[in-house]
Amino acid sequence: MTEKKPYYITTPIYYPSAKLHIGHAYCTTIADSIARFKRLAGYDVFFLTGSDEHGLKIQQKAEEAGVTPIEYTDKIVASFQNLWKKLNISNDDFIRTTQERHIQVVQEIFRRIYAKGDIYKGKYTGLYCTPCESYWTEHQLDENGCCPDCHRPVQEVSEEAYFFKMSKYADRVLKYIEDNPDFIQPVSRRNEMINFIKQGLDDLCISRTSFNWGIPVPTDPKHVIYVWFDALTNYLTPIGFLDDPEKFQKYWPADLHLVGKEIVRFHTIIWPCILMALDLPLPKKVYGHGWLIVDGDKMSKSKGNVVDPIALIDEFSADAIRYFLLREINLGQDGNFSRDALIQRINSDLANDLGNLLHRTLNMIGKFQDGVVLAPQGESDIDLSLRADAKETVDFFRDNMENMQLSLTIKKVWAFISRANKYIDETAPWALAKDPEKKQELANVLYNLVESLRTISVLISPFMPQTAERIWKQLNLPQAFADVQLTDIETWGGTPAGLHVGTPEQLFPRIEVEKEDKEAAKAQAKQAKQAKAEKKQKQAKQAEPGEVTIDDFKKLELRVAKVLKAEKVEKADKLLKLTVDLGTEQREVVSGIAKNYTIDDIVGKNVILVANLKPAKIRGVVSHGMILAAADNKDLKVVSVDMPAGTEVH
Ligand code: MSP
Fold first, then answer.
1. How far is the CA of 51 from the centre of ligand 1 (A)?
2. Are 444 and 556 found together in one domain?
3. Could you tell which of 13, 17, 19, 24 is best to mutate to test the pocket of ligand 1, judged by most ligand atoms within 8 Å of the CB?
4. Residue 190's pLDDT band (cuts 50, 70, 90)
5. 583-586, Cβ contacts within 8 angstroms, sequence gap of 24 or more
């Protein structure tokens, strides 16, 4: 027997700072379906999820709860594990960053990179709020320049810290991303990352001394290691990085890190730099999926629209929730969760289309053939077309699941379910049963229906594992469901003649919409009341038309920039391309000042740059920001100040 090909897939490890919501369940369900598909397709899959338990935030939450951090995370992590069990997540391991096996890995990685000279000791400077033990940046402060949490004054402090030389790897990471178009997907996220790196990478501060809930730096234990440095390395721990070279060789590099869109940056920039420093190959793919929003709004505690997956599973079943999430949302985009849409899908796709097909088929076999599937003989045109549709669906499934087209695949499988229901109407077995001459024709039709259901059971198994198995069991197929492979449905005719099918059991009860409506109306009224109160609060803070609030103004990052170099832009007589120094980095900015400044005039000036303006391409040159200038019809002067490059302007 040939060795199975390995496939290593991961989800992010979740923060146990609160219970998980339906958005987290979405991410893990996607990964689970891919893992299940790969197993079906004959891969040796290793599927990892876990919890990311260190950091100041967890320490503070534990303090608020009056327990130790580990007591705090133990409890929440148990609730994660319970959720994954209820949702039938088939992970092969669950990593906790507080486990000894992981602590050893992180410390060893720190040691190796330090020994290589890519970690060094330096000074971290920030604004510190002593009562909150938190560091803030200028932009995060409240309107009085105080701590945004407790609104007390902050102090500028600098603490000794270890830094990781990310800047050393910037060019190599950029080249890797450019040379490997499949590495970051979807492509929109890839472009974002390329632009980000092109602005230059700073070295990363990877240790703190202001709190202690973390993994100590091995040679300097008053420092704890930065939580993302600790978290990202989780992907190496369970596959034997330290203790099982054979296993490690087999599964690394990972085939897929599936992550939410907001953490693609950590996985495609920081993580590759760490791996390069360790001389390890990079993961084959990082896929940034979109966010699940609720009734058109982002989930948040304050909006009161956080959807608890456990309550939903208890109400509608794990498979119904999995089906909805995977079918309704296109992987790379944001998608909406709504109770109404969920109920509609359950009633139409699950209770009606799928449930009826099974029920009608088993009923007819019971009634017309004493529950026995008879051997088929000969085929009509309709039979042949059903079989061709089944083959096309299986082919589509294989190809599209390889490309992570989950929603498209589900739609295709459901088109086949409808096709099989139509086949019943077209062949009218109840009429065939009345005619003794048509016994074989009836046997053929019922055989084809069972074979269709056998195929469907396998095709839905990555998405709805329990339902797939229930169908398999009701069909009473002799093969153990756990052993079924995709190859088992690649050839039509796997149902053995003489099979005794079981009695039909309802797969999904229909949800009574009227009763539901009342419940939903109540919930909606409550939410609307809350939303109204919030809107009022918000309005009180909002500006009159034409005005901006201090919060609006604070969104702008204005900084002093020293012009290092200026060049004319080809075929654009008003434009100069400037290279400016922002203290921590250099950037290119295009500015419409060529008619008013010569190159010699502008070089050396300290101007003001809108530093967080979205980069824009101007005459083929990407401009990372905008220089402020005062101008009328006749004259133009850049705003310049006698302050060092990098100084913030407020
Ligand atoms: N601990 C880090 C990840 C470290 S991985 C080395 C983290 N944790 S998290 O709990 O905040 O988020 C975990 C994942 O949940 C992220 O991929 C995030 O995108 C995802 N989601 C959180 N809310 C979500 C939705 N509403 N919708 C979809 N996914 C969402 O980040």
1. 11
2. no
3. 24
4. very high
5. 583/559, 583/644, 583/645, 583/646, 583/647, 584/202, 584/646, 585/199, 585/200, 585/202, 586/200
Is 50:65 a contact under the CB 8 Å cutoff?
Answer: no
Mean pLDDT of the chain: 92
Distance of CA 282 from the midpoint of ligand 1 (Å): 21
Q: Write out the two tokens for 472.
A: 């398999």
Q: DSSP 3-state helix, strand, coil percentages of the chain (rounded to 5)?
A: 45, 20, 35
- 433 and 349 both lie in a single domain: yes
Cα 235 to middle of ligand 1, angstroms = 15
Domain boundary among 449, 466, 489: 489
Does some domain include residue 617? yes
pLDDT-based confidence at residue 582 (cuts at 50, 70, 90): confident
Mutating to test ligand 1, I would choose from 13, 17, 22, 27 the residue with most ligand atoms within 8 A of its C-beta, which is: 27
Ligand 1 geometric centre to CA of 632 (Å): 49
The answer, yes or no, to whether the previous bond of 496 is cis (omega within 30 of 0) is no
List pLDDT tens digits, range 159-172: 899 999 999 999 99
Whether 130 maps to a domain, the answer reads no
Token match 């096309």: residue? Answer: 392
Q: Cis before residue 216, ω within 30 degrees of 0?
A: no
- Same domain as 461, residue 371: yes
557 and 475 both lie in a single domain: no
CA nearest ligand 1 atom 10, residue: 14
Whichever domain contains 567, its CATH number is: 2.40.50.140
In a domain, 616, yes or no: yes
CATH number of residue 435's parent domain: 1.10.730.10
Question: Residue 466 is part of which domain span?
Answer: 339-489
Q: How far, in Å, from the CA of 263 to the mean position of ligand 1?
A: 8
Strand-strand pairing, 119-129 and 216-217? unpaired
Tell me the pLDDT tens digit for each residue of 105-115. 999 999 999 99
Q: How is residue 438 annotated by DSSP?
A: G
Statement: residue 622 has pLDDT above 90: no
Q: Which residue has the tokens 């005039």?
A: 601
> pTM for this structure?
0.79
CA-CA-CA-CA dihedral for 578, 583, 586, 591, to nearest 10: -20
477 and 578 co-located in one domain: no
Domain end, chosen from 473, 489, 505, is at 489
Asked if 358 and 440 sit in the same domain, the reply is yes
Distance 14 CA to ligand 1 centre (A): 6
> Looking at the structure, do residues 368 and 451 belong to the same domain, yes or no?
yes
- Ligand 1: residues with CB < 6 A are 12-15, 23-24, 26-27, 52, 231-232, 234, 259-260, 262-263, 291-292, 299
Q: pLDDT, tens digit, for every residue of 506-558?
A: 999 999 887 666 666 676 666 667 666 766 665 555 555 557 667 677 778 89
Each residue's pLDDT tens digit, 5-25: 999 999 999 999 888 899 999
Number of structural domains the chain divides into = 2
pLDDT in tens, 66-104: 999 999 999 999 999 999 999 999 999 999 999 999 999
pLDDT exceeds 60 at position 469: yes
Q: Does residue 358 lie in a domain region?
A: yes
Q: Are residues 346 and 483 in the same domain?
A: yes
Task: Please report the atom of ligand 1 found closest to the CA of residue 261.
Answer: 19
